[in-house]
Amino acid sequence: MSSNEKSVRIDVVDVGAIHAPSDKTILSALEAADVHIHYHCREGFCGACRSKLIEGEVEYTTDPLAFIDDDEILPCCCVAKCPLTIKVPL
């Protein structure tokens, strides 16, 4: 990552910390860090990558069509707005 690119720290419960480029989805950052997460799409409609948001805030690049609870996110279609703590289904 070049020094111009901003990244956000994401603490993944039971995995450790990763850094997500601010212009990439959380799913892309998890994949780049070899965190294996189940998914079927990158559009926010299947819900397979549903993860628990413990702390922080995300911004959706695509409105999710899958049902998610208030304490959940769909990493396939959101970016981190600040440092996060999440728990992904392993």
Automatic annotation (TrEMBL):
CDD domains: fer2. Keywords: Ubiquinone. Residues 6-90 form the 2Fe-2S ferredoxin-type domain. The keyword Mitochondrion does not apply. It comes from the Bacteria. It holds the Pfam family Fer2. InterPro entries: 2Fe-2S_ferredoxin-like_sf, 2Fe-2S_ferredoxin-type, 2Fe2S_fd_BS, Beta-grasp_dom_sf. NCBIfam families: PRK10713.1 (NF007985). This is FeS-binding protein. It comes from Alteromonas gracilis.
